Give the backbone structure.
Amino acid sequence: MPGHAPAGHPHAHGGADVIPMRRDRRRSPAAVPHGNTAPQLEEPVPAGAPTPAEEQLLRVVEGVFVERGLTLADPQTAAAFHAALDLAVLAVDAARAKGTVDHAGQATITDTITDTITNMRNVPDWL
């Protein structure tokens, strides 16, 4: 019958072509030309995953909370953490308003802490 696989046909079970692999293929490394090294494959970093520097920041910041029996993975703790970061920015603004820091000093402090605070805000999302 047309379109029907005859009995005993290798694909009668509906499977695809199979490329036979030698069993010893995994035991022997691929030949590498003299003087060259085998390429090292890097695992891709998932989107949104922290960089190594951000990972270190994560460990430090989360460590402060863990020492107190807390974790930034808890939404309430993360919200309180974000509020504390907002307060840090307000403290710099208050120093400017009191005249403790001039405008240039406020700008320097703000520029210095902006990246750190921005990254710190991301810590709960990385957990």
Observations:
- Helices lie at 52-66, 75-98, 103-126.
- Residues 19-29 have pLDDT under 50 and may be disordered.
